[in-house]
Amino acid sequence: MGWIILGHTFLMPQGIMGYTNEEDIKQSPLNSDTADGNYAFSLILSAQNAVDTFFFLSGFLLSYLTLKELRSRRMKVVAAIVLRYLRLTPSLALVMMVFYKIWVYFGFGPFSVIFRDSINRRCDGSWWSELTYTMNFTPFDSDKVCMGWSWYLGDDMIFFIISIIILPIYHRVRWLGWVTVLALTGASLGVTAWLVIRYHLSIYIFDKHYAQYSYYAYSKPYTRIPAYFVGLMAAWLLDDLEQRGITRDTIVKTALKRMSAIAGAAVAAGLLIFITFIPGSDFGENKNSWGSVANVLYIALSRPVWAMCCAAITLLCYYDFLPMVNGFLAHPYWTPLARLTYGAYLVHPLVIKLAAGRALQFYTFNSWDMAYRWSGNTIMAFSGSVLLWCLVERPCMTLFSPARKSQTQQKNDKLKPSPTGSISGYSTTTGASNSNPDVLSEISRTNSNATDFSVEKPSQR
After folding, report:
1. Is the separation of the CB atoms in 152 and 114 below 8 Å?
2. Stronger pLDDT, 165 or 252, i.e. the higher one
3. What is this structure's pTM?
């Protein structure tokens, strides 16, 4: 989430006021020593990869926990979709109302007119598409979407619906589930490659190539679903291993397995670093130097490969082959931040845009200015998320959680003889332990809790 805020801290002000020293950002005849010629600039440009981490986590959690529901025969597809909509939409609706009807009056100074226009011209005609999660199709131009950053929510909702239909197929006929997912993944990669070649799409963000990339491919669900499917399939692999008796408790960690695990983690980390910094070779003096093949390979394949690396690290942590990494990623201190992630994603552009809309002068681009603004934006975004959590998210979790019914049923069951003495610890549409209402959103709110890498066993929770 912090990485996404970093990327937006640089990009979003440009639509309102921009930078006074543009000649220091992108190369021109006036200056050859620019930011885009420095590979460190790729840390900002590659922030979009964090979204694919969210997609992987959403698919992984949905798949792994839903399979348990299917085995208990308590899975209800329509109820799962409706509950997820009811969980996510009130927060989205409140933020959009504040952004559209209140935020416009807070602008001040020379850029306030542009600030207000950037909101009104988009939201006047497309506010309703946010509430139906169709913002990636209506309007088709992502620059005309009311809350442009909400494209992720539209994709994630579509991926959820598609996956919740595929999972019962996999549960009944495994090979058919694999064929379905692989076929859809192949179709997605084919469509993405065709779009790159047909419209000459490129990752260079300072000219028309990236504008065309944003228009035709960047936010469209049919180009972004492979990363989500990687999460789906990684959960299938883990579930299959557990069904064969290869669990965290039974796996034998020989020296060879440990060395292989460390080598695999090193390869995954190396690929993550490579994907992060390789875009720098298409900037600066070498801007737009990538041909069609390089652009196809990066735009079509980098996202699923990124998700595969996340999957490798996740599985190695699950089986405790990387105890230090696992200890860091599964630390309970992450839990509050994980629960605030969905709200922070919704709120952070309001913070960034309002700061730009009240500025009295153009920003000056430099590393220290970026660091200060990024830190402030992050703190303000998560602070706003706390307010959103208290006003909307937590009440909605309480109102719409099937766990309330389950807990009542549990109390009633204690008065009756039971052949097992217990019920399944997972809730159909939340995928969370019924014994802990604080984690009720692992499935229906994977946007918020997707950063929870905890690999404790359900019984330990």
Report:
1. no
2. 165
3. 0.85
